[in-house]
Amino acid sequence: MLIEHSFTIIEKIVLISGICISLGSFCFEVWKRLRIVLKGTGSLPLDRIGERLWRVFREVFLQEKVIRGRLLPGLMHGFVFWGFLVFGLVTLDHFAIGFEFPLMSLETRHLYSYVVIPFSILVSIGILYLAYRRFITKPKILGKLSPTSGLVALFILLLMATYLLGELELQPLVWKINWWLHTLLILAFLILVPRSKHLHLVLGPFNIFFKPFHQPHHTPVKIDMEASEEELDEMLSNLTKMTQNQALDIFSCVECGRCMDVCPAYRGGGILNPKDHFILDLRQPLLETRDVDVLSQINVEAGWECTTCQACSEVCPVGNQVEKSDEIRRLQVLVEGNVPQEYQKLFTNLQNTGNSEGATSSSLVDRLPKFTPDMEYVFWLGCFARYELDPNFTKSVENFTKILDTAGVTYGILENEHCSGDPANRLGDKLTYAMLREHNMEQLENSNKVVSMCPHCVLNLGKEYTKYGDISYKVEHHSQLIGRLIEEGKIGVNIGDNGKVTYHDPCNLSRMLNIVDAPRTAIQSVTDNYFELPESGKNTLCCGAGGGLWWKKETVGKTHLVRAEQVVESEADTLVTGCNFCYGMMNQGLDPLIPEGRPKIHVKDISDIVADNLQ
Amino acid sequence: MKICVLIKQVPDKDSSLNISDDHLTLVENNITWVSNESDNYALEEALLLKEKHGGEVIACTLGKDSARQVLKDALAKGADRGIFISDSSFDNLDVLSLGKIIASSLEKENFDIIMSGLQSDDQGNSQLGLILAELLNMSHATLGMGTEVVDDSTIKVKKELEGGWFQWTKLSLPASISIQSGINSPRYATLKGIMMVKKKTVDEVTSGDVAADALESNVTINKIYVPDKTKETQFIEGSPDEISEKLVELFRNDIKVLN
Ligand code: SF4
Ligand code: SF4
Ligand code: SF4
Hints:
The complex is a heterodimer. Chain A has helices at 9-39, 49-61, 64-69, 71-98, 106-137, 147-166, 172-192, 200-210, 229-238, 244-252, 258-262, 264-267, 274-279, 283-289, 300-305, 311-315, 325-336, 341-353, 363-367, 382-386, 393-407, 422-426, 430-443, 455-464, 478-487, 507-512, 517-524, 559-569, 580-589, 606-612; strands at residues 377-380, 411-412, 449-452, 474-477, 501-504, 530-532, 574-577, 602-605. By secondary structure, chain A is mainly alpha-helical. Chain A has 4 domains: 9-210, Fumarate Reductase Cytochrome B subunit, CATH 1.20.950; 229-336, Fumarate Reductase Iron-sulfur Protein, Chain B, domain 2 (Orthogonal Bundle); 350-487, Rossmann fold, CATH 3.40.50; 501-612, no CATH class. In chain A, the strands form 2 sheets. Chain A has a 4-stranded parallel sheet with strand order 2-1-3-4. In chain A, strands 6-5-7-8 form a 4-stranded parallel sheet, sandwiched between helices. By secondary structure, chain B is an alpha/beta fold. Chain B contains 6 helices and 13 strands. Chain B is globular and about 70 Å long. Chain B has 2 domains: 2-215, HUPs (Rossmann fold, 3-Layer(aba) Sandwich), CATH 3.40.50.620; 229-259, no CATH class. In chain B, helix 3 crosses helix 4. The complex binds iron/sulfur cluster (3 copies). One iron/sulfur cluster is lined by residues 307, 309, 455-456, 506-508, 542-543, 545-546, 579, 581-582 of chain A.
């Protein structure tokens, strides 16, 4: 019905007061949270703006992560989201009409309705589906039923209905009632949004914009042994404070539970639930104290269970760095002195002998060439290989040296190599980490190229150390070097017979170091029967050894079996991996899980499968 | 409550131990030294008592220069000060002489409680706590699995008996109590604790400070050697019932893996 409606002065006063109240309440609530966020340590990053905007475009406007993680619910969410964008203009125009200053002419509005009407139907379908999922199918990861969610769903449906109704030819009075209903719904929605998880509508895009590029994004703990008592106290009290990024995360969380879906500890039946323990448990304390001094409230037991695999942070659709085990562990170690006994033993070993096992000799070291400056690579062994945490892995080390020898690459090991510090770093003992790091940086002072078979070492030597100082060398994972040697024709390989071959992406390698293709290049050049596991690449599932859990004696759940079970189900004949810890976990974990009568699954390192098939 | 904790530096269980050519001592350069395990539990128990009842915890060790580290660790965990007893003439003394040296070093402190680990992981004498009680005229309890201060002059100690039994005994203070491993969860030194070590004092005791008669050893070592490994295979014969009965008996009485 192409007519303009008139509004009385009273109506306009009511309208303007309504807007003031709901917009005021909205701004107040958002401001309240923003002030808390700004109290956080550090600052919100503004570097690499182009990349950040591109990420917002993909993850917000294209809803990439939302849809990729869960196709149907993701698409339905997309409908609602895109519908909201389309409705932006309609809503502005709606209020403008109330003041008799419409933004669109009657014709434009009519034309635009050809876009809006289909969208309003899609939004309704989307929201009905989401409500059905939340209230009828009730997946466990969505948590307790929330009445606000129901209310929001109802509001959105009514908004769509009142919009559609308004597009029909109505009696002026009916039109007016409908208009007011629509208005009230929007105003009420504005009041509701910042008080509920629907705040992600506002904060999500900003949070994705500010999200760090590197994982894990724990702030370095710099310890000055010469500091005065006051300086020390200040440093320690800062350990309980969130960064601005972290505080923004807490208010942006949409409670979707995707982080639980991918968490090996949660899936294994442990205590840890990343959504609650690392995010939602901190929301109330932030609001109540109006400060960011809340990290000590993280559940300690849950914190010890985390493998630090970063799957939760990778999957989060609103860009949260979910994992906070580093934060709670370093508080336990540095401030509380509350450390499980097996980890105390591990730390003492690291302090006394420079290795995780407390070993005083290594037979492998005696057999390998020692690094001299005329050699190309420092071959960094890492404790796992050096002290034979899984004796079978020694064969993989020898296979790697066989590849290097064949290609004519020169390499040598460092006699005085100490643990890269990964277990100390991940378990929160930043003092022991500093000791090991400083020792190793000295050892590597005159090196250019370092290669290691352990992603944990590569991550620490190459990325984590740089948080504390400059490094002069470049670290590579052996899969990268092997991949390159194959591509450059420095080694020739044949297609071998390993049956159905699959690859387990080590989380440190794929998610934290972004190395996904090189291992595949190497593996696929020696097999023609390759397939991917259900969770692979940057979305891999951790084997359960990370975050120091290799040394943990008892766990509530069976974090260490979740991936192994998946591998067994895949019915692979050969499982290749690129991490010594993964190798150990799989080598020891698969056999007992294989049903009787089924053949054994061969566990190989990338170096094994390539060396076996050298020309 | 003034509590002294005796801590000994011993070779780490994972160290490879080599015997010197003269078969009288251990080759030390490949050894990693750590605090004796049960002494860590004794220290924790003392710190817990201090947290509950107030007072002072003093860590004391007797050993070579490297043993200063165990005092540092104890101070970092919360001991208030240390006593370091060291002298080359103390090497190779037996436990009774060492007991005399420690007793004369601690005498003037008038401790309410002396706590020690049940047994050292190297020599395994399990006597020091008792000897000190005798020399310093204190009451004593061994195999302590729990402690409870009753009042200024009494403490209750839960002792482990044979066969899974426990007994609570009341001791009058001062008392020397030796502590069993596993009684508590020893803490880890906090960063602040580690930084504060340099502000704490360690008193030094050398041979001049102790009674001369303590310096004679009552024991001489003739030879240190690794026990010969002998294999002993037993065949159990009989009907399945008899076999299982004998097995259970063996498990219970010889191998002691069943109660
Ligand atoms: S942290 Fe992220 S993934 Fe986890 S529930 Fe919140 S929004 Fe979802
Ligand atoms: S880092 Fe991994 S183990 Fe830890 S909470 Fe996240 S998904 Fe779970
Ligand atoms: S062992 Fe492998 S999968 Fe497990 S934490 Fe390390 S890199 Fe990740």
